[in-house]
Amino acid sequence: MAINKQEHAQWSSSFGFVLAAVGSAVGLGNIWKFPYMVGESGGSAFVIAYLFCIALVGFPILVAEWLIGRRGQKNPVNTFVDVATSEGKSRSWGIIGASGILGGFLILSFYSVIGGWALNYVTKIATGQFVGQDSDAVGATFDAMLASAGTLTIWHTVFMFFTAVIVGIGVTSGIERTAKILMPLLGLILFVIVGYNVMNGGFGEAVAYLFTPDLSKLTEDVMIAALGHAFFTLSIGMGIMVAYGSYLGREVNLLKTARTVVILDTVIALAAGLAIFPIIFSNGLDPASGPGLIFVSLPIAFGSMGAGTIIGTLFFLLITFAAVTSAISLLEPTVEFLEERTSMSRTVATIVSSTIIWLLGIAALLSFNLWSDVTILDNNIFDALDKLTSKFILPLTGLAAIIFLAWRMDQRSIQQELGLSNGAFQIWQIVAKFVAPIAVVVVFVNALI
Ligand code: PHE
User: Fold this and answer.
1) With 295 labelled, which of 96, 313, 393, 400 sits at a CA distance of 20 to 30 A?
2) What confidence tens digit (pLDDT) does each residue in 384-397 have?
3) What predicted TM-score, i.e. pTM, was given to this entire model?
4) Which residues cross the membrane (predicted)?
5) Are 230 and 58 in contact (CB under 8 A)?
6) What does the angle CA 292 – CA 296 – CA 383 come to, to the nearest 5 degrees?
7) Residues with Cβ within 6 A of ligand 1?
8) Which residues, in sequence order, are bridge partners of residue 4?
9) Is residue 154 classed exposed, middle or buried when 0-12, 13-18 and 19+ CB atoms within 10 A define those classes?
């Protein structure tokens, strides 16, 4: 993100912008969360629902958030207030920005815990812990990590500390430039693992599991999980993309850029599925084993493939890196907001917000051990944070953003800004006014009744 610092800073190129957006979007959501959600939902039904949600809900909302951000040129709360008042609408639209900031805050608390797991696995794989181990031994190592509140706290702290330092001293642009090299490498290793799987069995079964349509499994729960995940994986419904949009130059084509980001994000998630499920099937593991899925499957492959120690170490390092680029985008809005709205300096704002997030993260990681029977509406704290954000805050915030754009803003100027012909704009309007909002509402109403 090469920023040229006149007035409100701007991305100097659309490429820099794509990098920052992909940096935020591609992360644990693609490699850790997507596969285990597929597994919990029984396979292809989730994949299909997810692809629909990405195309018909996620994509238009991503465009809406960027467009609103580019109009407003401020932090998300002020952007929504300004754009609303300049369109003659109520200031209370600022709430959309606020709920987004809250979402980032809550997500980062448990995100950092998983970032910590990935870091811990870098050290485990690098020291050859999994070499020659069978699935039982690999599973036992994972369970032992979960059972130790101390271990989880240490790694969560390291992850959160890195994130805070990067945001605090303001070197996010350097990190995002590094992403230009590291993200393609992550993609490459994913494909190496997929290649290994093609040779080592379970591949056909995994492809069938992921892609053979089985609509009987398409329940309301699966649909709401897929919808929530579409928001999570694209980093929308949070104000992050609104904030990014505010740095976006006029010349950037929003639709094309969104297409690039959405395709990259989806390809990485599907590749992660093809990297993991063959190992699950060929080792007789349970696809529905939850958040530990990548940690009990990938090490088996790394323990037995040639150069597995190097490839595995690198892979978990790259996952951690991808997680950090997402984490900084989760922390940044809170820090920026505190900086603009209070007298705190950037450093103080970073320390205050990351300390609170860190504490909340400790509550989340205790769900796996000491506090496993502490529940909120039948969910442990970790799951409660995850569900509250993915299933409620993100979709509702995103819904409000698309409604605002499609029903409250001047449509002619939007057509111009998107550079669409009349016919194409009509299709856009059908999706933005009806398909996306109705999909969110229908899924919700179904889930509530
Ligand atoms: N999109 C990121 C991922 O898939 C997570 C994230 C969610 C980041 C929301 C920012 C905002 O890992």
Assistant:
1) 393
2) 999 999 988 999 99
3) 0.93
4) 12-32, 44-68, 93-114, 154-175, 182-203, 223-249, 261-281, 301-328, 348-372, 392-409, 430-448
5) yes
6) 5
7) 24-25, 27-30, 107, 232-233, 235, 238, 240, 326, 329-330
8) 10
9) middle
> Chain-wide mean pLDDT for the chain?
91
Most confident of 177-191, 249-263, 422-436: 422-436
- pLDDT tens digits for range 347-372: 999 999 999 999 999 999 999 999 99
- Interval between CA 320 and ligand 1 midpoint (Å): 13
What is the pLDDT at residue 6?
40
For a ligand 1 pocket test, name from 50, 172, 244, 326 the mutation site with the most ligand atoms within 8 angstroms of its C-beta. Answer: 326
> Which residue out of 22, 24, 332 has the highest number of ligand 1 atoms within 8 Å of its CB and is therefore the one to mutate?
24
Question: Which string of b and e fits 22-57 if b means at least 16 CB within 10 Å?
Answer: bbbbbbbbbbbbbbbbbbbbbbbbbbbbbbbbbebb
Burial class (CB in 10 A: 0-12, 13-18, 19+), 259: middle
The answer to whether residues 244 and 24 touch, using CB atoms and an 8 Å cutoff, is yes
> Does residue 295 register a pLDDT over 50?
yes
| Minimal-distance CA residue to ligand 1 atom 10 | 235
Contacts of 283 (CB under 8 A, 6+ apart): 134, 135, 202, 297, 300
Architecture of domain 14-448: Orthogonal Bundle (1.10)
Domain ranges of the chain: 14-448
Which residues, including other chains, have CB under 8 Å from residue 49's CB and lie 6 or more apart? 218, 222, 223, 226, 227
Tell how far the Cα of 342 is from the centroid of ligand 1, in angstroms: 26
Amino acid (1-letter code) at residue 435:
V
